[in-house]
Amino acid sequence: MVFVMFLIGALAVAFVAALVAFVPARSLPVVLVIAGVILFLQFFFSDKIAAFAMGAREVTPQQYPDLHGVVDRLCAMADMPKPRVAVAQTPMPNAFATGRSPKNAVICVTTGLYDQWRTGRLTEQEFEGVLAHELSHVAHRDVLVITIASFLGILAGLVARMAFWFGLGGDRRDDRDGGVPVQLIILLVSMITYAISFLLTMALSRYRELAADRAGALLTGNPSALASALQKITGDVARIPTQDLRQAQPFNAFYFTPAFNRDTAKTLLSSHPSTEKRIAQLSKISQQLGH
Questions:
Q1: 80-105 average pLDDT score
Q2: Which of 55, 67, 165, 174 has the greatest number of beta carbons closer than 10 A?
């Protein structure tokens, strides 16, 4: 994770240097101001927007006493402040957490996951494993980390659009590149930066999912239950209608398991490691705890 963050930082330095070198001085302040506004909005409101878009509704202990009871118990074990608890009305069994820090975090389960637990398809230990995984995201401040890491890609995409639609760079040509239009250079650099930044952010997300699996397994002391829940939920998600999966895919980075089929989850474009890799790690942790 540290190495990926280093690469993202190095890429950001190179991209900013390219902006300073090629973007006209009169246009550079406009780009920086827009980038600052986007960073502010993303930093303070991206988690709230995501929770709203996924239909998360905060619930009280009186409405869902059993759900609050599990969260209370896990937070006491982890010695962390209790996040707000929410429920999303969707048949897809899943869970997610949002929030920049443990103080303003929200942990949410879908009605599909909650119903599986209440009907016995998921055991108490499996359900605890899923929530422990999501609480680990909160404790690790993963939403904040991914928000910062993904900002470079957003900035690069913004600059590419400005170069394409508004002619950022004008008709100026760069003598060092044989008279290539500066606008074209800015567009190409931005597109390349966006692509590399996206791949690095997805790699970082996969590593942090593995870290959350590990932390959740160690918190409950039951890695096999988390692995079993992962297998059951992944299998159930695969049976969800394709149209519903497509609607959920923009929020895959938040979910316990992505709304993808198994083949797609193995690609570099996935925000989650493959189910097989996650289960293999949990199996090793189980062996370590056994010793």
A1: 89
A2: 67
In a domain, 14, yes or no: yes
* Active-site residue, 134 included: yes
Tens-place pLDDT, residues 188-216: 888 999 999 999 999 999 999 999 999 99
Q: Is 272 annotated as a binding residue?
A: no
Domain span at residue 282 reads: 2-286
- The answer to whether the CB of 101 falls within 8 A of the CB of 54 is no
Residue 189 lies in a domain: yes
Reduced 3-state DSSP string for 160-206: HHHHHHCCCCCCCEEHHHCCEEHHHHHHHHHHHHHHHHHHHHHHHHH
Average per-residue pLDDT for the chain: 83
Question: For residue 217, what are its two tokens?
Answer: 């397994």
- For the cut 90, the answer to whether the pLDDT of residue 125 exceeds it is yes
Compute CA 138 distance to the chain's CA centroid, rounded to the nearest angstrom.
Answer: 12
| Number of compact structural domains in the chain | 1
Q: Does residue 291 sit within a domain?
A: no
Percentage of the chain modeled with pLDDT above 70 = 85
What are the DSSP calls for 35-73, one per residue? HHHHHHHHHHHHHHHHHHHTTEEE--TTT-HHHHHHHHH
Per the annotation, does 137 bind a ligand?
A: yes
Residues 238-270: b if buried by 16+ CB within 10 A, e if exposed = eebeeeebeebeebbbbbbbbbbeeeebeeeeb
The one catalytic residue in 58, 126, 134, 276 is 134
